[in-house]
Amino acid sequence: MNDNDAYDELDTAALDVLRELGPLSTEDWANAMSDRGFGHRRDMYELVDTVDSVDLAFLPDMRNIAVATLLEGRFLTHRLDHREVASDIIDSMDDLSPITTLLQFAGDPAGLRTKYRGIGDDEIFTVRGIDDPLWPPSEALVLPQGTLSDYEPGELVSLVVAGGEVCIRSVYGPLEQVDVTAAVLEVVPEDESVDRDAVVYQLMYDQPDLFTKPGPPLSEIFAVAGFEQSEDSVARTGFDFEAAAATTRTNIVSNTFGVEAADARALILFGDIIRDIRGEAAYDAQQRAEAAVSDGADELAPLGRSEVAALALRRQLDGDGAAEGLKHVADALLKAGPRQVKAAAYWLLATALDRLGDAISAEKALEKALDADSHFEPAVLSLAEYASTRGDAVRGLSLLGRIDPAAGADLREMLEPYVPQDRPDLGRNDRCWCGSGRKYKVCHLGKNVLSLDERAHWLYQKAGGYAATSNAADLILGLAEIRTAHLGGGDDALSKAFDDPFVSDVVLFEGGGFAEFVTSHGPLLPADELMLAQQWLLVERSIHEIESVRPGEGMSLRDIRTGDRHDVTERSASRTLVAGQFICSRVVPIGEMYQIFGGIEPVDPAQRTELIAILDADPVDPESLVSFLSARFAPRRIETRDGDPMVLCEAVFELGEVGGLRRRLSRKYGAADKNRWHWTVDSSILGTLTLDGTCLTVEAKSERRMDTMIDDVMTLHPDADQMSERRLSAEEAMAERSGEAAEPVEMTPELVALLDKQVRAYEKKWIGESIPALEGWTPRDAAADPTRRDDLVRLLDSFPDEERAGAMSVRRLRAMLDL
After folding, report:
1. Strands 89-91 and 139-142
2. Using DSSP, how many helices (H) and how many strands (E) does the chain show?
3. Which H or E element spans position 184?
4. In this structure, is residue 634 part of a structural domain?
5. pLDDT tens digits for 188-212?
6. Are 35 and 101 within one domain?
7. What is the pTM of this model?
8. Alpha-helical runs (H) found in 657-766
9. Do 129 and 202 have their domain in common?
10. Shared domain check, 312 and 210
11. pLDDT for 328-375, tens place per residue?
């Protein structure tokens, strides 16, 4: 049983306890689970606090209640309008949601479904002929077409839970008279709103006979009783739902981001304006943004503080039209916003322009932001990054000097190695070293230009920084999760994957981040860096054979896809790599030299064909590439001949009367060897059955085989009683045995001779077998084929050279293969 199955079983047990004892507070529910032996109270609290089921709901006092049984036999009604009759879709929020909660995650057998406006379900409304994008406003009950064909607008329809299923029924005869005024007053305090469904569940729980016959719709019942509804809440007449919703929303944002209420209101209004204009025509969007900013100018004032502006931006960068909307609101803040938000407005405008691909205009906007406030931290950071992109490390560091050192620590660390170093051998008034004829102080003093090969890594870092802050977040996370799938997961492993050079490089190149960087920020790059970046875009990742290595200096590579050879400068990996290995990497030019950026991935010779297919795709799929090259981190999997994981399985049965079982086993598995039967296929033994008196032991090396044999035993002897069962993976078995002290074996001359005879026979057989490391070729055929001979040599070189009893001899193999 896997962890998910175990969790599902605990979920089911928890709901059973709630049905038995509920309603219960979360703490009491956890205690009840613990008292029944399901686990520690702390663990059970975490479990019940996260139970996700349509059967789970809450009462107004926040006690948990299982509602499926509570709703059995209850009727709720709804008065139809013409849109509902025409479309067979009911606006179910005001009257029916206490029952439609049972349909949230799946359709009912009767064909009923719940759908929601604005979260991906809108297509069904269009298909049913509804052209009003605001109706239904939220939850809708979708009925099979034709369900309401015999109804007229104004008539009632009812939902009832019968036998655990939600059914739709017509309403005939007089309605049940329902007066809930006193009961609702007890659970809905003055000046507060309460979840409407929770109130209805409380009424049902307190009055078992309530709603057992069709009555007026809930919306009408509450109105007669002196209560008002708004979406999913109910309150006493006169309650200000709009103000309460605004307060709740402010509190959520305030608590989520740890900001004051005024800051939260500014964040909310800023987001609302962007959402309101997103997708609108440019002129209309700008006019509406300016009007909204003008009306809410005082409320938007907190955006003038850098931490609030940064939060506002972080919440609004996703989705189609986000950059356009941000630009309109930034322009509106500059025209109609309060004076104190000017620096923030220019910074927001710069961000929008950058996202829209206009880096030059974005840089100008950042300059204006610092004109308004020379220490506005987000603008300082952004302009320092632009200075870095332009290759001006001195200016970038100067800008960073205006703000808290911690804020720009990573950028400062990147820039410091690229600060120009003055020539100590030249005086200020000496002729400049560059040959211009001018004095050093007016020509290159403080302006020493690093060579392109010295700046190549800086260029790569610039692109990486751009990708990390662009729209690549989802791709980065997805690839990091793939990379860590075989590393035990966890935050630490995922954090390392984010910094993995291979993952970062795939995001840049196969993921398109580098191309976006060149398109967007190319105009800011020094001309030689731009040309180099464009060259890099033409280089594909490939598989390279290492032909020679100069440890600590570099290596010579041959691209096996194109045949191109490159002499690569590489200082660290060249200390561990050896000639004959295969690697997957991108070899890029830097002037007259070649280097590897983005990590070096080892490639098994047997992987080459499949990896070439991935690299030949147009475009290359980033997920497939990272998944394939990360599979080497997976734990070794030992398989049976039919591809199942090897699991050592044993089951013991008490048979009682053996009767004719021996004869039936022999018919099924063949004649017994004494008291043992073998399940064989093509001379391979797949399982054994051993009879000892009335005890039958069944053994197999895969769970599928074991399940088949257990079924056979129960079919051949239905009275068999299974007494025990053990299933141990091959890896677990090896781990167990590795912890046991091995008995030393005495290597007698007779034993050595026997082992030598067996190994020599195996060697003769091996050279004629299909070998995965040779892509299915036999060693004999590979030795005879010039295109495969090198692979065979590499394979034999990987074998131990030591000659020892019981092991294949590389010397004898080379002799047999004429190598």
Report:
1. antiparallel
2. 37, 21
3. helix 181-187
4. no
5. 888 888 888 999 999 999 999 999 9
6. no
7. 0.66
8. 661-669, 703-716, 730-738, 749-766
9. yes
10. no
11. 999 999 999 899 999 999 999 999 999 888 999 999 999 999 999 999
